[in-house]
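check this:
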Amino acid sequence: MFTFNGIGTRIYGKREVNPADESYIATKWFTLLFFPIIPLGSYRVIKAKQTGRYPSYQMTEVRLNVKQIIVTYLAWWSVPVALIGWALIADLVSKSG
């Protein structure tokens, strides 16, 4: 994954956690200003044995997790859409009165 000034790819989400190995499903996204734009794939993420200072992870591609995609879109886009809607309504009210 790589982003530069919020543009690139990132992993978002944590669904279907397997308690046995603590693996989970995450989705890789193309991002613009850190906002998820296009889902590129879902992966089962397993924390590998930590050998150094930072942990490493093994990622195995799985079928796109639609529930996670919907939740991610709602979580990231609901506030900006609500603010823009509020601003448009406030503008209309101020012009009509």
